[in-house]
Amino acid sequence: MLEDNYSRSDENQEGVANMEAMGEIILTPEGYELKKKKLEEYRKILYEELPKKLKMAKEHGAELRENKEYLDIKREQDYYEAEVRRLEELLEKAVILDESQISTKTVGLGSRVVLKDLKTNKTETYELVNPAEADPEQNKISTESPVGKALMGQRKGSEIHVETPRGIIRYKILGIER
Fold this sequence. Notes:
Blueprint: H1 2-21, E1 25-27, H2 29-59, H3 68-93, E2 94-96, E3 112-117, E4 123-129, E5 140-142, H4 146-151, E6 159-164, E7 167-177
Parallel strand pairs: 1-2, 4-5
Antiparallel strand pairs: 3-4, 3-7, 6-7
Helix pairs in contact: 2-3
């Protein structure tokens, strides 16, 4: 019975890897909602706020190519157009991670991992996420980051060594949660 749980966990992680290989972007439910909210915010700026600013800048007269305010707003508009396209594409390809696919036996996408820094004895909890939703300030680290790569596939009790710009950091995995 215990071996069945291990194999099911491994199969789920392989399924996640296959989905990403097919061009789908796997996001946590929270990450998906945050991206949707950001898209709505950027659309409002792009389609409501910036047109008003552009109209006002045009009314200030002068040749448009010499109107610094107008040119700055156009650059801002270009930025938001690119971000809206990027977020639309990301959400189009997104697959929401099913919590039942998250193993508590081995570290994988969506796992919350309790780590102990073996040098400082400091304990931290990190969530492994797709690079598209990484946010180090919220302890959401990318599976592609040095720590994320070192954690993938590891089990509770494992020690990992991570090469960082500050040098090699050694961690012990104290727990794996959903």
